[in-house]
Amino acid sequence: MIKAYDPATGLGVVVRDTDLAEFDLAADALEGSVFRMLRQGQRVLFDLDEGQATRLRLGSEVDMGTPSFLTAAGDPEPA
Fold first, then answer.
1. Spatial separation of the C-alpha atoms in residues 68 and 60, rounded to whole Å
2. Exposure pattern of 18-39 as b/e (b: 16+ CB <10 Å)?
3. Is residue 68 situated within a structural domain?
């Protein structure tokens, strides 16, 4: 999850869900990413490289452990 992000400098901090450990964003964390802006509380997946968060990306609902959404027909998606 994004704890803080400054778009002017590219500096930011992410928090790992499993143990709430905090990691600074690496300078190239957004390279190749769909993200152009980050907002506080936004859930993301990231890798760690030398203690810094790298390769930020969106995850699937399964990856992030969030509840499934309803389909267009209104039925829950299969698990």
1. 10
2. eeeeebebbeebbeeeebeebe
3. no
Whole-number Å distance between alpha carbons of 46 and 53: 6
Return the structure tokens found at 68: 């499934």
Strand-pair category, 22-24 with 52-57: unpaired
Contact 68, 79 (CB under 8 A): yes
Domains contained in the chain, number: 1
List, for residues 20-66, the tens digit of each pLDDT value: 999 999 998 888 787 878 899 999 999 999 999 999 988 665 555 54
Task: For residue 14, give its domain range.
Answer: 2-60
d(CA 30, CA 70): 30
pLDDT at site 37: 82
What is the pTM (predicted TM-score) of this model? 0.71
